[in-house]
């Protein structure tokens, strides 16, 4: 019970301070779970990030679920997810109930966006030293960086990582470290659990649209729409916007104005952007609707992750797969750098004042070793006073 409570408290703290989108979340996770608490080492963390980049759904949430699973099994993964998403779900549901027609001012969020700049920069340096520390891996990181920034396609990150992984499989397998004995059973899940999870994922993906078409029930319609969005979205939470808009606005289940207002609010709160579903569900069917929408959009992330993890340790022990992961790990650094530039840097650093505060926060975090929660508090203060 003590371990479960610890997982929940840490996850809630991260859920309250993780501004800046999924890449920033990975920076916060790296700082808390890898550097401070050492619940998972850097190699394991990077492998988990690489896996979640390939799975559809909210990658950062899946990484959090995976770390909770490492710590305390399936229950730990569920508790980690609840803690991380709870703050943003509560805020967005309250916003839908109370403030949707108000003219709330979110300009102070600029201070928290500057915090995200510092956090991600620290993560890039820390992970880059470990994962892109040879000429070959640096080139792979730059290859992914270039593809991600220069080719505008929702699947480009997956394709770029796949290419670096294939390169690593054939040319880096001798450089890849073999699996450590301590890592042999990192995810203590049975293959039966994995097969059941994958079967349920596929069954719901097929059955729910049929039920929705036949019953024309609003609750079945909501569950189907949110589940499909969570199942088919690659490329981060922003990609879910057009999918959900097409599902609900043309059917007049929510107005276009309220849809955009809620999306703006979702940008202003910490945690995963997929919690935008909590706002939509609450707007349509109250508190119960918000809870149902949240469960439906995140359920595929659980089923896919728990479906793959039982086979993950065995795959990592294979020398070809180890080389594959070495290539992907270098590519992840490239994705981090690309995301650091856009959208984090381009949407945040516009003036000399922005750059000055971002640099100060980075120095406090990187060289003065101030804890990330204190940097968040400073960012909030900067946002209120100067923006």
Automatic annotation (TrEMBL):
UniProt membrane topology term: Multi-pass membrane protein
Record keywords, A-Z: Cell membrane, Membrane, Transmembrane, Transmembrane helix
A GO term from the CC aspect: plasma membrane
Coiled-coil positions: none
A Pfam entry, by short name: Chromate_transp
Domain of life from the UniProt record: Bacteria
Localisation per UniProt entry: Cell membrane
Record-level Gene Ontology MF annotations: chromate transmembrane transporter activity
Transmembrane segments: 7-28, 74-100, 106-127, 139-172, 192-213, 287-312, 324-345, 357-386
PANTHER family for this protein: CHROMATE ION TRANSPORTER (EUROFUNG)
Protein name: Chromate transporter, chromate ion transporter (CHR) family
